[in-house]
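User: Modeling request: complex.
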Amino acid sequence: MMRRVLAIGLVCAIGALLVFTVSNYLLPFGTFPQRRFENFEDNSVAQVYLENAPIAGAGGAGSANVVTSIVWDYRGYDTLGEATILFTAVCGVAMLFRAAKEED
Amino acid sequence: MNVDYIVAMLMISFGLYCLLIKRNLIKMVIGLEILTFGIHLFLISMGYREGGIAPIVTGTNPASVVATLGVDPLPQALVLTSIVIDVCVTAMLLSLAIYAYKYHKTLDMSEIRRLKG
Amino acid sequence: MAGMTIIVKTASRLLFPFVLLFGIYIILHGHLTPGGGFPGGVVIVAAIVMLLLGYGADAAKAKFSPLQASVSENIGSLILVATGLLGLFLGFNFMKNAIPLGTTGNLYSSGILIPLNIGVGIKVAAGLAVILYAMLTAFEEEKK
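Assistant: Request completed. Predicted assembly structure:
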């Protein structure tokens, strides 16, 4: 009983801390950075990807979907590693249930 | 008044509550899922720009409009990878829960801990 | 696991080709609309799950057995690696977009993305089918 009250108190404290960090007008001091176009610089990686991805030539991917060209063309090696993660999970689940089937 | 940030933080705290208080194994897995969804929502809404459009070149939005008014496409690409990793972890957790149910005949965490000796 | 009533059986049998077609559409148009390989593979496996729930595990296994699913997953993975090696044999680095890019906005554009999307779609669909078959039919033989 005492542990449940302690756990609920801890979750409420962490939740209040997170919500007050992130909100803009709930506390009279401090703001989270505004998400407007003039607050960001012109030469970031995202801006280079947005300008160069639809170009069908050298340096571009030639696709209309910028997110898919990032996932497969500019960062294709990371997606190959993620396909390996999927294969490992399938191997793990099949191995667990093969041991169960051989017992009986 | 960042509503999407506040909702993401509320989802993280609800998932944490579910993971700490509940004793059923399946409910703990659901709590972990809600926690992960809250983190993904926070990451994607960090890339939003006010008055922006989706970063896809269509007939009504040519390439010049997308280059000046598009939102940030990098967090969306990284969260796509993270969602697949979350599916794999949930599959392993659920198969372990099925195993625990077969050998202990119960899904209660306190009962499983007591039968250890 | 056993099947369900006749209404569920008829509805799942009528809806199966349409859900399959929707999944293939999401995979093939991955470079034009939101989506790509991963959501398309999950929609294809949702069609198989509809058959599994409506008709039972034995009828679904007769149509798409676990051995076929395991071999399909390996074929999808081989398509992924072979498309990456194509860039290596043409003189550039691994996984470079070396085959000719069409015009932006057509169905044939962004050369290497279409085989990669198809490979990952097959791999995700077959992998999730193997996981579901293993989870649903592992502890059943004790009841017989």
